[in-house]
Write a structure and sequence with these properties.
The chain has about 775 residues and is of the alpha+beta class. The protein contains 25 helices and 24 strands. About 40% of the residues are buried.
Length: about 775
């Protein structure tokens, strides 16, 4: 158990430490500080202009590089109709290899990302698209229309990096699509920016220069709440809990908990050994007394007992290695990681195993060795060793500690199980049953013939409704604009969703007041342009947004609000009436509080950006068997969107994936807790059996005098029951403190009810009995 958990902890602590410049790479991220009218936002990204300005202003910066992660990229072979939706394609500056020394399999980094239409792919993609043939110089087709040339092949990135990339496309390619200002803008906040510091330069030094840097380049606007944060690349996996990080991160608390579990298992097992060894001192006392009488010195006695303990620990390591071979694949699959345990190619690993055996052996054998060797031979022959209170007191103390740990683990296990059940079964405010989400193209969305496509899809009798949007439940809301009631002085930054008709019907979102977008009304959101920066629209808002604007659902309908588009290069303004107010929906995960949001009825293609408004299609299936409906959609997909691969998922399954990591870690925690509790129970059973053996004559006399079996069992269990009650007093406050902190990661969580504690105490008492 300890070695398996140590492998996991070691893996989590190793993230991004293999880069040659790991100790000097820092990430530059944007923080939008909270204001009275804005909840604030911690982004893992920064504006595209930041990297060149850092190099320009700070001689302490050796180089910078930027990465933009595409939500999905349609790639295909030019000689085949088969296309794939790739989610691991990043746009990157040509300086990428100067920051991250990614090893090459073929080609050269020189000029690999210098020009437009260039791409570097990994071994998996090379095999996927070209088999065993050489891919260098060949092309892939992006989005069904744009060829990109392969300039190099990289090794598959290890899984202990936050860069989850399968390919890097040149930043010049992004500029060709998005325009030359894309990479030198304060507006575009979707660049993962990294800087390599000069040798000996502290991150704190650079951090202290940020206020002056922002004032110098962004102006001295008292209303500007933008700040920059720096973080070492090696800290990202455990400490960056920002929106839109490149990969899902862990927490220091989770890793510490895993390490603690491993230590608890070892401690409980060591306590068992110490307990049983001191209990067996009855039989060993005469042996030690005889040895001392025949001239053995104390150091020899200590060496004998420690040697026995070390021998047992070394044998246990051999057994553990055999068990590892059996259980490690299942453990790896459970955590969705690939653990390797090569004993002979890693001398540090073998040394660590040996050290583990030595430490556990010395820990477990220390008390019996030093205590038994300290008594005189006469005391041992008289039995004063076992009749003394010291040995009994130690055994009681160890039992209390064991059961304190066990009770705390039972409480933690119950809380983890109930919280994960709660987030999986909570009412999200939407109907997720039989809703299927289809992934469109990032660039073209659901295609130029969306309306005809939608009508054909809806013709099937098993399909109740069809809609499209830029985001669906389960995704992060970051596209925000300023909203204010017309004539009011306060503006509020609120996330926006671009949706099509029937969005609310498809997801069964309840209206508290007003109506949904209608085809026979003029509800369309007219996107502003540089030529016409003011336009009109109709808006639907949620209940939280209504409260934020100082309205109620009933009074909000008919109120005119004004939207200021903050992510535009010109002062865009859209005004229109609120036509409806919907119930709050848990759009993102239960780890986040309900957010205000508003909905815009948009056209499929946006005017302000080449990125499509409708990147997702959702269908509601009315039949119990969805196969016929899905077959119908598949045939239409090939007809209307032949260059986009068909990729879909059921919404309920997709939402469950939000908590996949917590589910996996929770399962591991439960299993390891059960093992620790079982080890404690085994130790207590051994100790109880030994004590009962010692009281054999007393039991015989009691039965002779008329005691029943139940009375004797009650008598023998009473002392252990008292110890368990003491263990509860210790465990409850400790478990409450740590589980309260663990639950803080969820905005919506179960209460630390008294029954968790009572149930764990009762179970521990039953276990003891």
């Amino acid at each position: 158990c300890a070695v398996m958990m140590a492998l996991y902890v070691s893996h989590e602590l190793s993230y991004d430490r293999h880069w040659a410049k790991a100790d000097r790479i820092v990430k530059i991220m944007t923080t939008f500080e909270p204001t009275p009218n804005y909840a604030g936002l911690d982004l893992a990204m920064s504006a595209s202009i930041i990297a060149p300005l850092f190099e320009q202003d700070f001689e302490q910066v050796e180089t910078t590089t930027r990465i933009v992660a595409s939500r999905s990229m349609v790639l295909g072979h030019p000689d085949s109709d088969v296309v794939y939706n790739e989610t691991g394609v990043y746009f990157a500056d040509s300086t990428l290899p100067e920051v991250f020394d990614i090893p090459l399999v073929a080609g050269s980094w020189e000029q690999a990302l210098a020009g437009p239409a260039q791409i570097v792919i990994n071994e998996n993609l090379a095999q996927k698209y070209f088999g065993d043939s050489d891919p260098i110089g060949r092309t892939l087709v992006m989005g069904g229309r744009a060829p990109v040339r392969i300039t190099a092949v990289i090794r598959n990135l290890e899984d202990n990096t936050h860069l989850e990339a399968d390919a890097f496309m040149s930043m010049a390619t992004a500029e060709a699509f998005m325009g030359p200002d894309y990479t030198r803008s304060w507006i575009r906040q979707d660049f993962h920016t990294y800087a390599v510091l000069q040798e000996g330069v502290s991150i704190d030094y650079l951090r202290n220069q940020i206020p002056a840097f922002l004032q110098r380049h962004a102006g001295d606007d008292p209303n500007d709440n933008t700040n920059l944060e720096l973080m070492h690349v090696t800290d990202i996996h455990l400490q960056s809990h920002r929106e839109y990080e490149l990969s899902e991160n862990n927490t220091v608390a989770n890793v510490a908990t895993s390490a603690a579990l491993a230590v608890f298992v070892l401690i409980i097992a060591s306590f068992n050994f110490m307990n049983l060894a001191t209990a067996r001192s009855t039989t060993r006392a005469c042996e030690v007394g005889m040895r001392k009488t025949l001239g053995a010195r104390r150091v020899q006695i200590i060496r004998q007992f420690l040697g026995e303990s070390l021998l047992i620990a070394l044998i246990a390591i051999v057994v553990a290695i055999g068990l590892l071979e059996i259980f490690l694949p299942a453990f790896s699959a459970l955590l969705n990681l690939d653990f390797e345990f090569d004993y002979f190619s890693d001398p540090e690993l073998l040394a660590g195993l040996l050290m583990l055996a030595v430490v556990v052996g010395l820990l477990a054998g220390s008390y019996p060795a030093f205590v038994l060797s300290s008594y005189s031979p006469l005391a041992m022959f008289k039995g004063e060793v076992t009749r003394g209170k010291a040995g009994a007191l130690l055994r009681q103390l160890l039992v209390v500690l064991q059961f304190s740990i066990s009770i705390a683990l039972i409480i933690a296990t119950l809380v983890v199980i109930w919280q994960l059940r709660y987030v999986n079964n909570a009412d999200l405010g939407i109907d997720t049953e039989q809703v299927v989400i289809f992934q469109g193209s990032t660039a073209t969305g659901m295609g130029t013939e969306w309306e005809a496509f939608r009508q054909e899809v809806e013709r099937h009798p098993d399909i109740a409704s069809v809609t499209a949007a830029d985001l669906v439940p389960g995704e992060i809301l970051v596209n925000s604009s300023g909203l204010q009631v017309e004539g009011a002085t306060s503006s509020y930054v609120i996330p926006a969703l671009n949706v099509d008709y029937d969005y609310f019907r498809t997801f069964d979102i309840e209206f508290l007041a007003g109506r949904a977008f209608a085809r026979d009304r003029n509800d369309l959101y007219i996107e502003p342009s540089a030529e016409a920066p003011s336009s009109t629209a109709s808006f639907v808002i949620n209940a939280t947004a209504a409260r934020r604007l100082g309205l109620t659902p009933e009074t909000a309908v008919g109120v005119t609000i004004v939207e200021d588009r903050v992510q535009t290069e010109f002062p865009a303004r859209v005004s229109g009436q609120i036509i409806g107010v919907v119930e709050d929906v848990h759009f993102s995960s239960m780890r986040e509080e309900l957010q205000p949001m508003y909905f815009r009825l948009t056209e499929p293609a946006g005017r302000l950006t080449p990125v499509a408004n409708f990147r997702k299609m959702a269908i509601k299936i009315a039949a119990a068997d969805p196969d016929a409906a899905l077959t119908h959609v598949e045939s239409l997909w090939r007809q209307f969107m032949p260059s986009v691969p068909l990729q879909y998922a059921f919404l309920d399954q997709q939402l469950a994936l939000q908590y996949d990591t917590q589910q996996r870690e929770g399962t591991v925690f439960v299993w390891f807790s059960l093992i620790a509790i079982s080890i404690a129970a085994i130790g207590l059973y051994g100790l109880a059996a030994f004590i009962t053996e010692q009281k054999k004559r007393e039991i015989g006399i009691r039965k002779t005098l008329g005691s029943t079996a139940l009375g004797i069992v009650t008598l023998l269990s009473r002392d252990f029951g008292k110890l368990v009650l003491i263990a509860n007093v210790i465990a409850w406050p400790v478990a409450f403190y740590f589980m309260r902190d663990w639950l803080q990661q969820f905005a919506y969580r179960v209460d630390l009810s008294l029954w968790f504690f009572l149930a764990s105490g009762a179970f521990a008492l039953l276990l003891a009995i």
